[in-house]
Amino acid sequence: MTAPRLPELLACYATLAPTNLDALVQCYTPDARFRDPFHDVQGQAAIRAIFAHMFAASEQPRFVITEQQLAGATAFVTWRFHFGLRGHDYCIEGATRFGFAADGRVCCHRDYWDAAEELFQKLPLVGPPIAWLRRRFRATGTY
């Protein structure tokens, strides 16, 4: 087995731009699966389309890698995703589990982040009802 290409992959994410999406998807196997709170897709073209849409739908998106752990053919990476939307700046904190194929490329990409807390609750129209629901279901009392 070839060593996982984690440094190359993270370098692509650190410098991600619409002009280098092809370099990013080359870090993935042709049949790689990508899953996050909004998507569950397979294949390099579908993964590329997600990131192309990210650049079209948001302002100055960028990833900041905060921690990484590699164990065998699995990596776990924490990150901050900074972006603008309609003149407002946002930051989502999350984590990704990467599974690597025998050739060192990513075959499984699973993002973990709380869409309600990290995104929806910060939006003007849906934020207040989500905040109310969170308060409603929060445990009370002394712990």
UniProtKB/TrEMBL annotation:
Residue span, SnoaL-like domain: 12-108
List, alphabetically, the Gene3D superfamilies matched.
3.10.450.50
Q: Taxonomically, which superkingdom?
A: Bacteria
The record's listing under SUPFAM superfamilies reads: NTF2-like (SSF54427)
Q: Which InterPro entries match?
A: NTF2-like_dom_sf (IPR032710), SnoaL-like (IPR037401)
What is the protein name given in its UniProt record?
Answer: SnoaL-like domain-containing protein
Which source organism does the UniProt entry give? Lampropedia hyalina DSM 16112
